[in-house]
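SEQUENCE WITH STRUCTURE:
===
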Amino acid sequence: MKRQTSTIQYTIRGVPREVDVVLRRNAAKRKVSLNQMILEELSEAALGARKRADFSDLVGTWTPDAAFDEVLATGRQIDPDKWR
């Protein structure tokens, strides 16, 4: 279980509409909650770095590849002669 440090809770009023739209759009794009998005942006602004590394722009997404699946299937076959 991850040990959490003491945190503070903020209530922020008067957020400009355009800021809200951008934060919500970025949260949806990153598939994180609005709260998490705001924490990341606030941490980056205050500390100069994100609290958690996000490598989604580097790793991309999985693309199905029949040739790769065939190579994996071949490698997963058990040779009965070697298991006697």
Q: What stands out?
A: Residues 17-77 form one domain. Residues 17-30 form the longest helix (14 residues).
